[in-house]
Amino acid sequence: MRSLAALLIQFSFASGLKFLLYNPDNPGASKSHVILVDKLGDLLVNAGHEVVTYMPYVNEVSFANFTRKSDLLLYKVSMDVPKFAQNTNIWLRDFEVTEIAAWMKQLGDVATRSCKIQLEDEALMQRLRDENFDFGLVEYFDPCGVGIFHKIGLKRYSMVYSTQIHLTHARYVGIPTPTSFVPENTWTSASKMTFMQRVWNFLANVIVEPYVISSHISGFNEIFNPMGKTVYDLMAEGGYIFINTDEFVDFPKPISHKVVNIGGIGMKKLLSIPQRLPAEYQKVFDTAKKGVVLISFGSLARTVDIPMKSRKALFEAFRHFPEINFVVKYEDKDHKPLELPSNVFLAEWLPQPAILGEIFC
């Protein structure tokens, strides 16, 4: 976080920089990716810079109504989207390597086709070029932004990771990835590994992970080829790499001067501001004898999509802790479980800052 503060101080000395944030609204995209880029945009606006969030969307807008301080530039991409990419229930997937690769390829194909349409729209490219942006930000899951930056002549930009950086990506930007103790976060979870775990970690790093990543970005390489670049070329030419993790709780690993950890960005200031807890949630806290647990699995892994048998087992487990109240994000208020334990409270939307502020007070 000190590195980020220093970086923002550097930006603050350059008054009136103009930033372009590539923040697409694609089918299958996660809200957390969009929200993180928006949050960075808000911080830059607060520092006195001009920020434009460029949001191409496929067929329908999903994330345009999010609260953001930057100027919003929408661009509609009309095209057919495979049903597989539109309707994905994470809880029903086996997450075999081939299935993950197929899923990533479909999401990548949608993003690639959208990217090709954007890059071929000379009026759009000229409009962005005429804005004379000073700096660009793009989230890694849809790297079309680096291609757009290159085409409009924007040479200063950075990558943003809403998760840990994949080791395949890390190698291409010059970060060592010794597989003897650095786990590939998608496939392994231990920093102290047995011999066989190290063997699997090695195979995951040199075979499995590149295969899955390639299934997602290979299409981008095809459309960037006329520019004489690959996705990894353009990623490596970027500046800082913003990673949404906290280095003090992450796995020990080699790092680079280009890496800026931004885990929990904005939360310290947000939690320092008194938040008014809505009455219904205040009652939850007042009736809890041993505390409150907040449960939210994110926008892709929706609680309402958990298979009924597993969902019932989850709520029944909460019943065994009657002195603790559980607040659960549940995305469909019209289809709540019939037999809900008295210490479980469901809501489609949660005032997370207020709840977290109450928990950590």
Description:
This is glucuronosyltransferase. InterPro entries: UDP-glycosyltransferase (IPR050271), UDP_glucos_trans (IPR002213). One of its GO terms (molecular function) is glucuronosyltransferase activity. The protein has 13 helices and 10 strands. It is an alpha/beta fold and 361 residues long. The strands form 2 sheets. Strands 3-2-1-4-5-6-7 form a 7-stranded parallel sheet, with helices on both faces. It has a 3-stranded parallel sheet with strand order 8-9-10. Strand 1 (18-22), helix 2 (31-46) and strand 2 (50-58) form a beta-alpha-beta unit. Helix 4 (97-119) packs parallel to helix 6 and helix 4 (97-119) packs parallel to helix 8. The longest helix has 30 residues, at 195-224. The model has no long low-confidence stretch (mean pLDDT 83).
Strand and helix layout:
Layout: H1 2-13, E1 18-22, H2 31-46, E2 50-58, E3 71-77, H3 83-86, H4 97-119, H5 122-130, E4 135-139, H6 144-151, E5 157-161, H7 167-172, H8 195-224, H9 231-236, E6 241-243, E7 259-261, H10 267-272, H11 279-287, E8 292-295, H12 308-319, E9 325-329, E10 344-347, H13 352-359
Helix pairs in contact: 4-6, 4-8
